[in-house]
Amino acid sequence: MTKKIVVLAGDGIGPEIMESGLQVLAAVEKNCRQTFKIDKKPFGGAGIDEAYASLPEPTLAACKEADAILLGAIGGPKWEKMADTPEKGLLALRKALDLFANIRPVAVSSALSHLSPLKPEIIEGTDLIIVRELSSGIYFGEPRELTETMAYDTARYQKSEIQRIIHAAFKIAQGRSKKVTSVDKANVLASSKLWRATAEEIAKDYPDCQLEHQYVDSAAMKLIQNPKAFDVIVTENLFGDILSDEASVLPGSLGVLPSASHSDNGPSLYEPIHGSAPDIAGKGIANPISMILSVAMMLRQSFQEEQAAKAIENACDAVLAQGLLTHDLGGQATTAEFTEAVIQELTAFTAKI
Fold first, then answer.
1. Which of 11, 41, 67, 139 is an active site residue?
2. How many CB atoms lie within 10 A of CB 315?
3. Does residue 118 sit within a domain?
4. Is 279 noted as a catalytic residue in this protein?
5. Catalytic site residue 139?
């Protein structure tokens, strides 16, 4: 069976790390039950340059027909003052595909724990997932206005939007340690009061799981003080954006964390959590791990290729354990060298699949 993957390499280091991800995908494909057809499309700044739109219509049409989408990175100073920015294209893509559930796993490899800004005894063993509502809230709420002397935004949530993201978090928790931490600001915000009440209702459908509540400021502190206290964190769009970026520094580099964004029925999108890093674009030193692990997430969550996904993750861990590190991790390995080392490890792993 052939599955279609739309590839949006994007801007900055996006094309470089995307190439690494596709090479790794090719290395495991022969051991998968499915084959994959790659369809490359312009998006973000590249879309503006090639088709005068951050989300060109042919790109959106291809994404809607895809079985999964891989995104590299978008944005850069070249486009930041344009009316149509790469970031607007990303928001439009999320909205068009109803990608409401953003999943960000944060696990700290033993090979990288010494790079964390936290003490080893605090960080070692950290393994949590942040589930962020991605398609509503203050980023999309109307009305909004900006003048020289006044501005306002609207944080709006429908109960149905909260229900589906809370369900998604509990389903993930059922396969882990069965603990969900719902993060809000219910002591101040009306939208958070609805969020908390809805979370309490949904929790009754999952009697095997524990639900706790945290205010967002308290959760931000606890992520640093005791990250191992968390299993699955679920929260709204703005809080999820902030907390997941905070959590991303726990392993010591943005370059090692993947993410997935899911809809109810359509294709899912997989991408690194970092930006386009225009300052190092073209130098061949970008860390490809987050892109490679995004490929692993795609194989597992969209195509049920668990063995291939695990092989990729094991290969990355093995290379890191050997001390082959990219520049952001304090090493000297290039993007190509790290990718080739992962592929060499995969040769051994995939022989057992």
1. 139
2. 25
3. no
4. no
5. yes
Where is the domain boundary, 193, 217, 249? Answer: 249
Annotation marks residue 245 as catalytic: yes
Statement to judge: residues 280 and 205 lie in one domain: no
Is residue 157 located within the same domain as residue 192? yes
235 plus 136 within the same structural domain: yes
Bridge partner list, 42 = none
C-alpha–C-alpha distance, residues 348 and 352, integer Å? 7
Residue 49 annotated among the catalytic residues of the structure: no
User: Range of 18's domain?
Assistant: 1-100+254-353
Residue 177 exposure: Cα atoms within 13 Å on the Cβ side: 14
Instruction: List the CATH number of the domain containing 285.
Output: 3.40.718.10
7: β partners: 40, 70
In a domain, 117, yes or no: no
Residue carrying the six token digits 């790390």: 17
Calculate Rg over the CA atoms of the chain. 20
Catalytic residue among 67, 157, 184, 185: 185
249, 282, 310: which is the final residue of a domain? 249
Tell me if residue 242 falls in helix, strand or coil. Answer: helix
Say which DSSP state 260 is in: E
Question: What's the CATH code of the domain at 223?
Answer: 3.40.50.2300
Same domain, 245 and 267: no
Q: Which helix (H) or strand (E) holds 51?
A: helix 45-51
Q: Is the pTM of this model over 0.85?
A: yes
Distance, CA of 186 to CA of 189 (rounded, Å): 5
> One digit per residue, pLDDT tens: the chain, 353 residues?
899 999 999 999 999 999 999 999 999 999 999 999 999 999 999 999 999 999 999 999 999 999 999 999 999 999 999 999 999 999 999 999 999 999 999 998 787 888 899 998 899 889 999 999 999 999 999 999 999 999 999 999 999 999 999 999 999 999 999 999 999 999 999 999 999 999 999 999 999 999 999 999 999 999 999 999 999 999 999 999 999 989 988 988 878 999 999 999 999 999 999 999 999 999 999 999 999 999 999 999 999 999 999 999 999 999 999 999 999 988 999 999 999 999 999 987 655 55
217 is catalytic: yes
